[in-house]
Write a sequence for this structure.
């Protein structure tokens, strides 16, 4: 005879195990270093070699994506947990979010002439700040504040000469991405639940 | 509503019949529930998530494997043998049916 209270206990045990399995881990630290370096180098290039920065962002973005895929896969193998649905969600968020940010800035610049040239870069950065913030809501609490910092930085950078403003913003974002990886790991640090 | 309501009793009895005997052990149910929301999980990760010992979990996973509710793939990671478990379509159907039966039972048992 199946005892109902035993059944409830068993369900509670299963629920706890599933909750432990769903607790988001922060992605491996190396991924933050890859993207921190990408932002630092790219933003510095905007200040000193704007044309080269376009090539860097395009090619570096692809290299960073492949590196992130490799690092994430290696991490999943070592942690013993493959969840391709989660990987798909991350790719849709980051790749889709950044492509839409670029497309959105092109669309805005086509109707608002003031947003062309260096200003289009600012618009992209403000929108990418929103993508960071949403990643903070889903996965990594650290990005909850780094997103708004990037958005504010994207606006503020226009107030300074490019060779100072952009590299300075690059340093801030680089530090915001990599410093938390040097701090002791916090369990359940993933999302704003 | 009383528990002796014949309609509820009939539903509860039907739900009892639908319970899968293989999944009436909490570790087996837990393992299958975890695997249903992932593509693959290793033995050691399942052990951590389910708070089980090696021996007990090994025995329970073997029963799930015998029922063809999960598949196992072995590989070496950093020179260590690692077993990856994944839920099969039959396991997914069984889990869904079992959870539905539990839900009916718990509804019938509500005071």
């Amino acid at each position: 005879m199946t005892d109902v209270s035993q059944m409830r206990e068993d369900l509670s045990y299963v629920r706890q195990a599933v909750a432990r399995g769903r607790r988001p881990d922060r992605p491996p630290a190396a991924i933050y270093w890859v993207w921190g370096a990408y932002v630092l180098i790219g933003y510095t290039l905007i200040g000193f070699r704007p044309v080269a920065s376009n090539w860097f962002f395009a090619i570096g973005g692809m290299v960073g994506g492949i590196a992130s895929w490799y690092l994430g896969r290696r991490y999943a193998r070592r942690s013993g947990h493959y969840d391709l649905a989660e990987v798909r969600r991350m790719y849709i968020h980051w790749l889709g979010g950044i492509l839409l940010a670029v497309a959105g800035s092109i669309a805005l610049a086509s109707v608002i002439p003031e947003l062309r040239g260096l200003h289009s870069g600012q618009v992209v950065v403000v929108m990418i700040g929103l993508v960071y913030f949403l990643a903070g809501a889903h996965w990594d609490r650290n990005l909850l504040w780094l997103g708004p910092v990037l958005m504010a930085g994207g606006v503020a950078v226009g107030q300074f000469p490019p060779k100072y403003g952009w590299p300075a913003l690059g340093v801030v974002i680089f530090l915001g991405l990599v410093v938390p990886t040097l701090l002791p790991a916090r369990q359940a640090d993933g999302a704003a639940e | 509503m009383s528990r002796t309501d014949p309609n509820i009793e009939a539903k509860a009895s039907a739900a009892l019949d639908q319970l899968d005997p293989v999944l009436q052990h909490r570790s087996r149910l837990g393992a299958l529930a975890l695997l249903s929301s992932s593509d693959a999980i290793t033995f050691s990760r399942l052990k951590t998530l389910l708070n089980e010992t090696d021996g007990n979990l090994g025995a329970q996973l073997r029963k799930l494997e015998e029922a063809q509710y999960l598949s196992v793939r072995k590989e070496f990671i950093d020179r260590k043998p690692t077993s990856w478990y994944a839920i099969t379509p039959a396991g997914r159907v069984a889990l869904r049916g079992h959870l539905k039966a539990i839900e009916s039972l718990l509804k019938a048992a509500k005071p």
The longest strand of chain B covers residues 70-77. The domain at 6-109 of chain B is CATH 1.10.10.10 (Arc Repressor Mutant, subunit A). Chain B touches chain A through 29 residues (CB under 8 Å). Chain B has a mean pLDDT of 87.
